Every structure is written in C-alpha cells, then in structure tokens.
Amino acid sequence: MTSADSVPVLEIRTIETVEETEVGGKVVEAWVANEVARCGDCQSGQVLAATAQLPEIQSSGDDHTGVMAPGQG
Length: 73
Hints:
Layout: H1 22-33, H2 43-60
Helix pairs in contact: 1-2
C-alpha cells in the first residue's frame, strides 16, 4: 500500500472543483452549450480528461483542431 504522504504533492482536481480553473470552466460551459450526450457515469471523467489535456495540446504548438470534438474545428 502507498501512503499519501509518500507521493509528491500534486494538484488534485475533481468534478466538483473543475470549474474553478479557466480551462475547466470553459470545458463545462462548452459541454452544456453543445448539449453533449449524457450517459451519466462517464461525464465526470470526460470533462476532467478534456480539462487536463487541452493545455498540453495548446502548448505543444501542433494543430490539434477538432481533436477533442471532431468536426468542430
């Protein structure tokens, strides 16, 4: 078992706090505005994954238009 105090301090983001970040707020806003199909259980993971990946994609300098939402770029 790994104790919490044995791992590096990392930022932990939950679905309840994702909108506190600029990117997270925009992801949730777009999610609602585009009426993304909602199955329930996977929504939190998808929003959190998009929020985590978008800054990495944007900072890479590559053209990833439409990666997160094909056909929207």
